[in-house]
Amino acid sequence: MIQRIFSQKTAADIYTHSPKQIEEIQKTRWTHTVNISPVPEQYRYEFLGALLKQNFQRMVQGAKIGLFIFGITIFLLDVLNLPMTKMELQEETIPLRYVLYAILVVGYVVGTRLRLTDPNASIMGFFMWANLFRGSFSLIVYIMFYDLAKSGDNIAGAFGIFVGLMSMGLYSNLGYILIHTIANAAIFFGIMMATTTDGVVIFDSLFTGFSMLAIAGFSASILYKSFCQEFANKKQTEEEQQKALELNQQLSLANEEISRQMELLGEQSRSIEIANTMLQEQSIEVERERDRATMLLYNILPRTIADRLQSGEENIANHFENVTVLFADIVGFTQLSASRPAWDVVSLLNRIFSAFDIFSEQYNLEKIKTIGDAYMIVGGLPEPRDDHAEAVARMALEMLATVELLSKTLDAPIALRIGIHSGAVVAGVIGKKKFAYDLWGDTVNTASRMESHGEAGKIHVSEGVFTALQGKFAFEEREAMEIKGKGVMRTWFLINTKV
User: Fold this and answer.
1) pLDDT tens readout for residues 86-102
2) Helix and strand tally (H, E) in the chain?
3) In whole angstroms, what is the distance from residue 234 CA to residue 226 CA?
4) Does residue 424 sit in helix, strand or coil?
5) Pairing of strands 459-462, 415-430
6) Cβ–Cβ < 8 Å for 145, 159
7) What tens digit of pLDDT does each residue of 156-184 get?
8) Is there a contact between 464 and 423 (Cβ–Cβ < 8 Å)?
9) Which end of the chain, C or N, has fewer beta carbons within 10 A?
10) Superfamily of structural domain 315-497
11) Rounded to whole angstroms, how far apart are CA atoms 478 and 260?
């Protein structure tokens, strides 16, 4: 039972100290010089507080064991009156037995009332009470050993065992152990010298007693070193646990930060995705608007000219050495517009010019503009071609036939007068807000004169056109006539294609 109690692990309560208790230990002088190796120096006062509490705890445990042992002894000797030693000695030690039992009772009761877990309890109070208990208990036991030695009993073994038991409950540094061992050796020597004069007995008792005391001191030293190592291991474990806890906390914070960053990245990703979707939609819409604007520009300008304008070219002007220009005017349209509703007039004009636009695309000619009921196209630009005169002539025949058909179908008294001339022109884009692709030069003026000096329902061409198309189309020559600004000119009516 004794071995089980003294070998049990140190109670956790002894490691817990309040700041008040640590300060109390620091103020005690002897605590500054005690060797605490291998305990780190920063834990000196915490270690010494645990040591003092541990000694007090062992004192309470020892008192509890003593009560049990001496209770049985008193019951056997004083209640059952069993003769366990000399009757005279047994009777002489009755007061000592009861005093010793009373000390054990007081020590145990006081020890249990002084709680190690109380943060306001005095650490040095535990120390003083433990030493007071040991001192008073040891004094009575020393008197009993004196009585035994005086009666002739050999007390060397019993005395050594007693000191050993006391030392087993005492965790002390080497200096305290030496003092305790020397003091007990001196007491044992004094008892032996006072109770016997037999040299052999004295030598034998002293040798046995001192040997037992040396063993007790060595055991106490081992217990102290064991407690130091236990405390150092505990602190190392606590530090490692604290580091692990801090690392776990750092990892937890890092994981939380990573999770937060991931959430932010997710939100940013979703925002970017939404923004990209919006940008794509906007890009698609911009592309649609660009295509719409491009198509509108293609309707206003030749495709190649429009592309040059979109690429950033500002001043667009070109000279073309040989092109064919056509002017067409609807004869009778002014009178018709005065006699019919506006929507009817516009609808008719739209049908005529829409048909002309189809023909211009069919023959790959370039529509320049419309002015009122006049229509102007050109062949051979902006992309030069060798058959520009032929293409314009064929379209002129298509235009003439279309207007004749519409006049009969709609019962509208209208006819088409067309003039054609070939030659050099300058072409370019004018305007900043409303772009216009137009032609300039004598060729344009001559073509206009061909139209104005022509006849309704006929295609009036210049000599240059006749020369270019001779053999491919049928012509009817007119009498030479004075052309304003040009003088006398030979001209022809283009009748149809030559079979």
Assistant:
1) 555 456 666 766 776 67
2) 15, 10
3) 12
4) strand
5) parallel
6) yes
7) 566 655 665 565 445 555 566 667 667 76
8) yes
9) C
10) Nucleotide cyclase, GGDEF domain (3.30.70.1230)
11) 94
